[in-house]
User: Fold this.
Amino acid sequence: MGEPKLRFKADDGSEFPDWEDKTLGELFHISAGGDIDKNNCAAKQSKDYPYPVYANALVNNGTYGYANYYKIDGDTFTVTGRGDVGHAVARHCMYVPIVRLLVCQPNMDDDVDFFAEQINYTRVFIESTGVPQLTAPQLSKIKVKRPSLPEQRKIADFLSAVDAVIAAQQAEVDAWEQRKKGVMQKLFSQEVRFKADDGSEFPDWTKTRLNKLCEYGTNRGTGRNYIGTENLLKDFGGVAVKNGENEGTGSLHEPGDTLMSNIRPYLKKVWTADCEGACSTDVLVFHPTNVVPDFLHYVIASDAFVAYVMSAAKGSKMPRGDKAHIMQMPVFVPDKDEQRKISDCLASMDEVIQKSKGELAKWQELKKGLLQQMFV
Assistant:
């Protein structure tokens, strides 16, 4: 094993000792623990397993997995499971099935926070003919580098400080997203109204249906900038990647069209196109006909719209929206000038949110780079 490229020094300026080669089995007593129940988000307690549990789930991609650790009461826990990606932490446990815990109790006087960070960074090979599932013996064989306890603590404290900045930036993103939801609620309920540039009142909003504002894009063909359901980000996050060289056959879209994944609409995958291209036929293309395109985007990228779609969705495991039902959604619509003012207001908030997300991504990338320099 190599040596870390980024090292701390002792308080007196001297070098810390070289890192030792160890296996997790030498550092921890590893045994199977209790279950996490995805329905109640809590660990099942027993006489043989008295610990409270918070843990991250094993992330599998078919061949490799990542053993993620979390410190609890002086111990470290990892879990084995079947989810492609999952977190068994209370706020995320809805994404994972019931999983088994591997309880890792330190054999030495080590800093568990350090090893939590180190093993989060470690790639684990899983030999399995079926669903990959990490076992205690497999976990015990994982090789790591063990620094001295004082250096462990310096590394853990440093990374905790970076995590604190990341958490604060994430909180800022969350706060702005909540503010935007509140503003949308007030605007679309007409609790707050804009006025015309001359100070006059805009006309009353009119009640109509979605099919009077837009139509489905029905043109089919092959185009670049191909967008599949996997390219759309959940929670109205837009699009993950656009590739002008990536061609595909499906529904054609043009700038100003709003795209929404019709598979599992509750994931809220919505994006308004800024270019021509093609998309999967599992993506609905809403082409504006009698509405400001950006205003249509905010109608569709709303919790109210998703709730309406889900009210008639078909299928239990992979629900799909009913296309005829969607176009019958009742909508209150303002004058086009007021539509533009509403769209501009919300777009300004989106710019702030995207800037905050960009800062968050920079800090996350910085930590990733630090881990690459610190761990081997």
